[in-house]
Amino acid sequence: MERGIDFVGHVIKPWRRTTRPRALHTALHRIEHLADGELYATINSYFGLLRQASHSHADRSRLGRAVLRREHCVSGDLTKTFRRGNDA
Question: What's the pTM value of the predicted model, to 2 decimals?
């Protein structure tokens, strides 16, 4: 129980739930190399995954920085991204 249970991209322990490091690494890699047309839905999906973890603020900030490098806007609470003006 101390190592936690690996389930659907999270490591679940009795006292907290964190995102599996490999899931975060995969998300960051996909965001860097994904085509612009698929990017918006994929980013919001990953933000939804990270929202489920109780200790994920640092992970959400890493994802937010990757999104900002792709020139998209991110909400202040790091839970959602918005389309660029020319992508609408």
Answer: 0.81
- Please give the structure tokens belonging to residue 57: 């603020």
Say which amino acid occupies 65.
Answer: R
Total of domains in the chain = 1
- 80 alpha carbon, distance to own chain's centre: 9
Q: How many helices (H) and strands (E) does the chain have?
A: 3, 5
Q: Is residue 6 part of a domain?
A: no
Single-letter code of the amino acid located at 68 = L
Beta-carbon contacts of residue 64 (< 8 Å; ≥ 6 apart): 74, 78
Distances (CA, A) of 73 to 14, 26, 43, 51, 82: 35, 21, 11, 18, 5
pLDDT of 5-35, one tens digit each?
988 889 999 999 999 999 999 999 999 999 8
Domain with 30, as residue range(s), is 20-87
